[in-house]
Structure formats: C-alpha cells, structure tokens
Amino acid sequence: MPRFAANLSMLYTELEFPDRFGAAAADGFEGVEFLFPYAFAPQLLAQRLQQHRLSQVLFNAPPGDWDAGERGTACLPGRETEFRDGIGLALGYAQALACPRVHVMAGLVPEGLDRADAHRTYVGNLRHAARLAGEQGVDIMIEPINARDMPGYFLSRQEAAHALVDEIGESNVRVQMDLYHCQIAEGDLAAKLRRFLPTGRVGHMQIAGVPERHEPDMGEVNYPYLFELIDQLGFDGWLGCEYRPVRGAVPGGTSQGLGWLRKWRGANKT
Known about the structure:
TIM Barrel, globular, single chain, pyruvate, alpha/beta, 8 strands
C-alpha cells in the first residue's frame, strides 16, 4: 500500500508552519515533506518530528533567490561556490532531521546561455552533491518539472532525468517522479510508471490533481488506478501530497479535502 507524506508547504496553511506537523499527524500521516526548512532552526523541526512520531522524507536544497524567481542554481555556470555551500547547509539539516533525501533544483536556463554549458555545469554540481551526500547516506533527487508551471526549467521530461542519472554515475542520485508534472509535460502516466519504476532509479514520488493542482480526486488523472499500479510494480517509497487544497487556507480545509485518502485507506485495510 502506498505511503503518503503530507507536504507542509502546501497543506494546512491556515496554521503556522511548526503547527502543521501536529495537524498532519492527527490526519494519520506518518511522513512529511516540505520545500525549504531554512527559516527554522533544525532543532525545532526535529523536535516537532519526534513529538508527533513523523518521518521527514524529503526537502529541497537552497534554490538561490526564490523570491526573485530563481528555481535552483545547479545548472548555472559561475554559481558553483554558492551551490556547494547550499548543499552543505542542506546536508546539515538532513542529518538533524534524519531525512534520507534532498531534492536539488536544477534552475532556469538563462536566455543566451548555451545549453551544453548548462548541462556540463549541472552534471558537475550533481556529482559533487552526490559524493558529499553519500558520506551520510543521503540520496540526491532530481525532478522533471513541467514548462507550463516553470518555463525555462532545465529538466522537464522523465527520460531526460533517467539519462542524467546514468551520466552522473553516482548510485545515490535518483529521480523524483511527480505525476502532476509528468501528466502536464508528457502524459501516458501508466506507461511511464511501467517503464521507470522497475529500474529502481525512482526514489520518491509526488501527486496532485491535474490541471489545477488540487486534491488528487479532482481533475483528469485516475489516481486510484495509478495507486494500484504503483503497488503492483513494487514501489516501496513515499508519495508526497504536494497539492493546494481547493478550500485554500480556511480552518480545517486540508483535513476536509482528505476524503480521497480516507476512501483509499478504507478500501485497503488488511
């Protein structure tokens, strides 16, 4: 049965961030993920995880200047020192939170930058990050992101991500397969799952309804069918619930929208 992790950057947003851990646990989540932890001391976050018996399953390395529109620095020539400092910071948090995965955002390819230069920089940075992360048993995740939501992002397709894993050549670099992004960029989700899950290179998955990025039972994707398929294919990782509740930040809005999860759990009790 798939294991679902609450994305605390998008869910329970009516609450202050440290209080979202308890809300997720109260709704039966056993794992959490979020975008960035760096506004909070790692000791505080570790305490909330321990208090609510939650596993931290994923977070992102520093992305550059997020508020200015940056979405990672891994592919940007001339930013290597900043990138490496960010990886060091992320791995410190990973150790404190006992988190086995860090997602490294590739970045937007600037106009005028030769794609080959971006590619070469990306591969070099990922190799460096993977070797550091491997020293503490952490996997580095790379994620294709659709061009509608993030125009100009370096990586947008599953096949390209798997080719990069091969090229980087480090055993702890794996693919973060977000089915929301995959549906928008490529579609044919069941075929993609059948092709890529058996490789063992997919280390984390994420879900959201398409096209509005609301709950998984809203929109064009038949998630119950895909959950069954994921089980059949033997994926034993986490599925991050990285969606925006349709009720927004109203009190209880996230919990009210979890009917899809309660229905799935009820249908799969053993």
